[in-house]
Amino acid sequence: MVLLVVTGTVVGARLLGTTADVTDQLVDRLEPARTQTYRLQAALVNQETGVRGYAITADRQFLDPYIKGKRDEARAAAELRELIGDQPRLMADLKAVQRQAADWRRAYAEPLVAEVTPGKPRSVAETNAGRGKEVFDEIRTVWATQNADLTRAVDDGKAELESSRTMRTVILGAMVVVFLLAGMALAFLVRALVARPLEALRGSSRQVARGDFDHVITIDGPADLRAVAADVEGMRLQIVEELGASRRQRDALTQQAAELDAQAVELRRSNAELEQFAYVASHDLQEPLRKVASFCQLLEKRYGDTLDDRAKQYIDFAVDGAKRMQVLINDLLTFSRVGRLNDARVPVDLDQVLTKALANLDTSVRDTDALIERPETLPEIVGDPTLLTMLWQNLVGNAIKFHDPERAPRIRITCEKDESSGNWNLCVTDNGIGIPEEFAEKVFVIFQRLHGRDAYGGTGIGLALCKKIVEHHGGHIWIDSGHTGGTRLCFTLPSDTEPETATDTDTDTDLDTAENTALRTEEEALT
Description:
By secondary structure, the protein is of the alpha+beta class. Among the domains are: about 1-185; about 345-500, Histidine kinase-like ATPase, C-terminal domain (Heat Shock Protein 90, 2-Layer Sandwich), CATH 3.30.565.10. It is built from eleven helices and seven strands. It has helices spanning about 1-55, 65-85, 90-115, 130-210, 225-300, 310-335, 350-360, 360-370, 385-400, 460-470, 505-525, and strands at about 345-350, 370-375, 380-385, 410-415, 425-430, 475-480, 485-495. The protein has a five-stranded mixed β-sheet. It has a two-stranded antiparallel sheet with strand order 1-3. A hairpin with a 6-residue loop joins strand 4 and strand 5. The radius of gyration is 68 Å and the shape is rod-shaped. The chain starts with a helix and ends with a helix.
């Protein structure tokens, strides 16, 4: 197409140039040359008229046309030379006319003017006018040839102009036809080399988009289209690879889900067994212990007079062991029921539960002269009021229990809001015996003790129970190892937990509490 455009441009330019040259030759040279020829001839006629008039009248004013005609002749001849300088025939005619005119002036006009005496007119016969007419007629013959040649040149120019226009029209029409044919050929080539491969690429892309990811995209065509096809094929391979990885991950997740389901079934079975264990522990295990304690006491009461001091000591050991076993069982049941039976989700004022916990510890506080500093206000959170009361009671109770024998307990409770997480940070600080840093994690393990029973009573379940309560509420508990001069135990409680509706679990809790109350009453009666 570029070649056709360049060729058409060159040919069209040459045709237009040729037509313009012919038009310029005809309009700007031949037609003006004809006009100048008429002027030249008119100037010669004026010369002949002026000479004859002067010869007859002997009046010098009749020489003015002759003099003016000579100037007009020279001017017209100069214009003609410029216009027809490239036309040899026309130049020959001009030279012939000028030569005849010069001969006429030399042979007739100038001698005649010299013979006339101003103021003495002569007759026509005396002026030899006949001979002058013969000489001037020769000029007229040359005029006729000049006019005929000039007319022929104009006709030839017109014919050449018409031919050039006809050729221009034909060639331009042919160029239009060639352009149309070239456009059709290009359309066919575009269809064959671009449109069809592009349609095939679109069809392959749609087939892949419909899910046939194994369909290989192979496209022929121009280099750009092949590059696009290669990119699309690379994208398909990447999709296939990612899809394979996704399927493998899905299979792995499916397998993990199946394993989790199996573990959930196993967990439900284990929970059911734990429920059965709790029932056994609260009934079947405690019944033999009550009997051991009761019959040991009866044995001491009935046969006390016949038993020596060592036998009575052995009986006391047995009774004490049975009672401690009952305490351990009850503490273990309490620990296992946190978050399982006691799972209330209601708004709880930490001020109220702290006051209740301190009321439960009132005897210990008075016996040790403990001083407890508490914030003016504590926040309200969503949780289980019973568990939170147990939390405060264990923390403050530990601070009182493990006080320094040489000074009264001083306990300070603080509460701050963590702006970054939105949780409440609460701390219980005392001036007691403290906890070594290496035991900071061990004290939260159930039944782990740092002191003997003779020094400090208890089963070692208090902080383990506190940790379970805090984590059940979505918080975290730890010992501030950087604090010196006592123990600082800190924990967090969330402030954005929404309360949940009551479920049957609350009823189970009430039933379980009533059951424990009845059992404890029975135990006390037996004891």
